[in-house]
C-alpha cells in the first residue's frame, strides 16, 4: 500500500501482475520473520517468529529516542533550553529535559498509531464503508503522514504540560525523526509489506545500476503478493537513501544560529520534497483536486513544503536579532 508501512488496501489499478512462484535471486527476497532471514543466510531453521518490520521499527524508535536525548542534552548544556517539569505527589520537580524523552516517545507513538490508522481510513473511504470493523481492527493499513501529524500534536501537548518550549524541542526532534523514518523504511523493504512502487520500466534503467536497485519481485513478501518479473520499483530503498541524505543535511546544520524552530522548518521542507518525489512511482488512491488526480500524501507533502518554507523565512534571522 502506497503511503504506509504496512500491508493494506491497494488501488485496483495497480500495474502489478502475478505469476506462479519461482525462486529468484537473494536481492529480490523478502523476510517477514527473523527466522526467514536466518534460514536464507545461514541455512539454519531456527524458531525465531519475530517480525522483521517490527524489529526494525523498534530499532528506529530507539535510535530516534537516543538522538533526541542527545540533542536535548546539548541544548540544555548550551542554555538553549531550560529545565522541564515533572509532576510528583508532593508538587512539581525540575528535571533536565532529556529525562522526559521516554514519556515523550510513548505519547507520540500512541497518538501516531491512531493518526496513521485514521489517515488510512480517509484515504480509502470506499473500503472503510464496505467493511468498517475490518478496516479499523486489522493489523495492517497505516499512513505515515497521519502518524507524524498526530504524533507531533501529542508531542506538543506533552511538551507544554512539562514546561518544554515547543520550537526548541522540535529542533531537537528534527534529525531524529528523519533517521527514524529512514530505518523504518528498511523494515518495509526487508519484510516486503506492499510499499513497493509501480512496475519498473526496464527501458529506462541505467546500464551501470544493479538490477535490484531498479526492480524487485519481493519473493516471500509478507503481503502475499506474487509480482510479475522484472518487478516493481523498490521504493523503500529510495526513501531510505533520500532520508539519510536529508538527515545528513539536518545534522550538519543543527548548530545553526537561527531562531528556535528553524531546523524543524527545514525538516518539513526536506520531508515534503522526499515524499512528493517518491509518490511519482508509487501506487495509491487518488482524489480529484482542481482537475488533477493527486494522492493524499502528495497534498500533505506540498503543504509541508509550503509551511516549512514560510518557517525558514520567518525564523531565518539569527537568535537575538
Identify the overall geometry: globular
Q: From the alpha-carbon coordinates, what is the Rg to the nearest angstrom?
A: 21 Å
Order of helices and strands: HHEEHHHHHHHEEH
What portion of the residues fall into strands of 2 or more residues?
Answer: 5-15%
Average pLDDT, all residues = 86
Structural class: mainly alpha
Ends apart, CA distance between termini? 47 Å
Question: How helix-rich are the residues, as a percent range?
Answer: 40-55%
**Beta strand count:** 4
Strand order, largest beta sheet: 1-2
The DSSP helix count reads 10
Stretches where pLDDT is under 50 for at least 5 consecutive residues are 1-24
Biggest β-sheet description? 2 strands, antiparallel
List the helices and strands and how they pair.
Blueprint lengths: L33 H9 L9 H27 L5 E5 L2 E5 L5 H23 L1 H6 L1 H6 L6 H18 L4 H26 L43 H18 L9 H18 L6 E4 L2 E4 H19 L7
Antiparallel strand pairs: 1-2, 3-4
Characterization of the model:
The protein is mainly alpha-helical and 321 residues long. The protein has a domain of 190 residues. The chain contains ten helices and four strands; from the N terminus they run ααββαααααααββα. A two-stranded antiparallel ribbon has the order 1-2. α3 packs antiparallel against α6 and α7 runs parallel beside α9. The N and C termini lie far apart (47 Å).
Name its key features:
4 strands, two-stranded antiparallel ribbon, mainly alpha, single chain, 10 helices, disordered N terminus, 321 residues, globular
Short description:
The protein is mainly α and 321 residues long. 53% of the residues lie in helices and 6% in strands.
Amino acid at each position: 500500500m502506497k503511503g504506509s508501512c504496512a500491508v493494506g488496501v491497494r488501488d485496483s489499478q495497480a500495474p502489478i501482475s502475478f505469476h506462479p512462484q519461482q525462486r529468484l535471486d537473494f536481492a529480490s527476497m523478502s523476510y517477514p520473520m527473523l527466522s526467514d532471514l536466518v534460514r536464507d543466510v545461514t541455512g539454519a531453521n531456527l524458531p525465531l517468529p519475530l517480525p522483521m518490520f517490527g524489529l526494525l521499527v523498534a530499532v528506529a524508535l530507539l535510535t530516534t529516542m537516543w538522538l533526541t536525548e542527545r540533542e536535548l542534552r546539548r541544548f540544555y548544556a548550551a542554555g538553549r533550553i531550560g529545565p522541564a517539569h515533572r509532576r510528583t505527589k508532593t508538587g512539581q520537580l525540575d528535571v533536565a529535559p532529556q529525562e522526559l524523552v521516554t514519556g515523550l516517545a510513548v505519547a507520540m507513538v500512541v497518538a501516531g498509531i491512531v493518526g496513521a490508522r485514521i489517515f488510512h481510513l480517509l484515504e480509502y473511504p470506499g473500503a472503510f464503508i464496505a467493511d468498517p470493523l475490518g478496516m479499523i481492527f486489522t493489523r495492517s493499513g497505516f499512513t505515515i503522514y497521519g502518524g507524524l501529524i498526530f504524533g507531533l500534536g501529542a508531542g506538543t501537548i506533552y511538551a507544554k504540560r512539562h514546561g518544554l518550549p515547543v520550537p526548541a524541542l522540535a529542533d531537537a526532534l528534527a534529525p531524529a525523526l528523519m533517521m527514524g523514518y529512514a530505518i523504518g523504511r528498511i523494515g518495509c523493504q526487508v519484510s516486503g509489506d506492499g510499499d513497493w512502487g509501480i512496475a519498473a520500466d526496464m527501458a529506462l534503467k541505467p546500464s551501470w545500476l544493479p538490477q535490484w536497485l531498479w526492480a524487485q519481485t519481493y519473493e516471500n513478501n509478507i503481503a502475499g503478493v506474487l509480482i510479475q518479473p522484472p518487478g516493481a520499483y523498490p521504493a523503500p530503498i529510495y526513501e531510505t537513501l533520500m532520508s539519510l541524505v536529508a538527515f545528513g543535511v539536518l545534522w550538519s546544520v543543527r548548530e545553526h544560529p537561527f531562531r528556535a524552530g528553524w531546523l524543524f522548518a527545514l525538516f518539513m521542507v526536506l520531508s515534503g520534497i522526499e515524499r512528493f518525489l517518491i509518490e511519482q512511482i508509487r501506487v495509491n488512491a487518488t482524489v480529484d483536486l482542481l482537475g488533477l488526480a493527486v494522492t493524499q500524501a502528495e497534498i500533505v507533502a506540498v503543504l509541508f513544503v509550503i509551511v516549512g518554507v514560510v518557517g525558514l523565512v520567518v525564523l531565518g534571522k539569527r537568535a537575538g536579532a
